[in-house]
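User: Hey, my collaborator sent me this sequence without any context and asked if I could get a structure. I don't really work with proteins. Can you help?
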Amino acid sequence: MEAAPSATLRSMMNTKDLGSELPGRHFVLGLTGGVAAYKAAEFCRLLVNAGATVQVVMTGAACRFITPLTMQALSGRPVYVSQWDDRPANNMAHINFSREADAVIVAPASADFIAQLAQGQAGELLALLCLARPLAQVPLLVAPAMNREMWAHPATQRNLRQIAADGAHLLPVAHGGQACGETGDGRMLEAEELLEELIAFMAPKPLLGQQVVVTAGPTYEAIDPVRGITNLSSGKMGFAIARAAREAGACVTLVAGPVHLSTPRGVRRIDVDSALNMHAATIDAVQGASIFIATAAVADWRPVRAAQHKIKKEDGAGSAPQLALAENPDILAGIAHSPRAQAGDLYCVGFAAESENLQANAQAKRARKGVPLLVANIGPATFGRDDNALLLVDDEGVTELPRASKRVLARQLVAEIARRVSGGEA
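Assistant: No problem. I've predicted the 3D structure and written it out in C-alpha cell form, which is a compact way to encode the shape of the chain:
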C-alpha cells in the first residue's frame, strides 16, 4: 500500500523548479552608505539566481560606494534613489514598491539609517518606503554594517531595540576585520549568509517551538593512531535536514560525525568522532527534544582496544593482524525505546542505508528499531552525492520521494514529519 503524499508535499512536488529557493518572491533591496555595499551586489545576484525579482532602492550615501548602474545590471530593473523620481506614473514609488514586495531588506543598514528608522524619519525614498510599508503584510529585515565602536555605542543599541520593538527583524552581525583596520563586531553578513537568513525567515514554520536533534555523517572507530573503521557517509543529507528543520521554526541541535561541511546558520552543532561519543552526545541532547532524526551512519562495531602506536606491517609475515570487535550501542533503538519516546513525548525518525531490497529491509528495520517513521535509501547510490531518493515507511504505508537534491528532499521530509507530529496536514 502506498500512502498519498500530503497537501504540502504535493504542492512542493508541483513546483516547476524545486531547486529555486525563492521562486516567485519579490523583494525590495535597500542599500545605505557603507563599504559593505559591495556585498549587496552579490546578494542581489544570489536573490535573482534563487528565483526572486529584486527592486533596488539606494540612498544618496550608498551611491558613493556602488553605482546604481551596477545594481541595475544585477537586478535587471531600474534603480531608484530619490523620492522625487517621476518615472512612476503616480509619482509614488514609496507606495508602489512597499505594496508590491514580499519583504524589504536593508543591506547594508548604516548606523545613521538605523537611527532614521528608530525616529520615523522619511527624508529619503528608502526610509520613506520603510515607513509607508503595510506592517502586517510586508516585513522589514535589517542587516547592520558599521564600525565596532559605532555598533557598541549605547545610542546604536538603543535604536536597534527600538526598531525591533517597532517590528523590524534584525539580522545578526559578524565579528572580524573591518575596512577601518580594526577588528570586532559590526561586519555585515556575507551574501550567502544573508540569503540563508532570508530563506529561513520566509519559510513556513510548521515546527515552530519544536526541539529537534539530528545526527549526521559517519563515525570513526580507531584501530590505531592512523587507521580506523568508518564508512562513506558524507553527512550532506543530515546537514540538509538540520537546515530545513531550522527553517521550519525548530530549535535544532546537530550531532555530527567527522565531516567537512559548514554548520547551517542558526543550528547548534556538536562534533563527535566515534559511535560511543555520538551515543553519549545524542543521549544528552535528546533530553529536552521533541523530535529525533537519526540520519548518521553509525558503525555497528568497534575494535575492542585501539593500539597505542601504529601497527607495523612485517615484511614477509603474510598475515594481517587479527582485530577483536565489540558491538556499538544502538543509538536509535535505545532512544526509541526510552520512556519519553514510548510516552509519545519524543518522535523518532530512523534512516536506513541499504544496498538491496530497499522496501523489505526498511520495513524490517523499522519494526526492529521500534520507530514510527523509517526513511530508507540506497547507500551506494547517494554517499557523497548532492542528490538522493527516499522511501518513507510508517503506519500509513510506503511513500516514495523521487530523486531530487538533498536540499529539496530535506524540506519534503521535514514537511512530512511536521504533518505526522501535528496529527494532520502540515
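In plain terms: The mean pLDDT is 91. You can pass these C-alpha cells on to your collaborator as they are.
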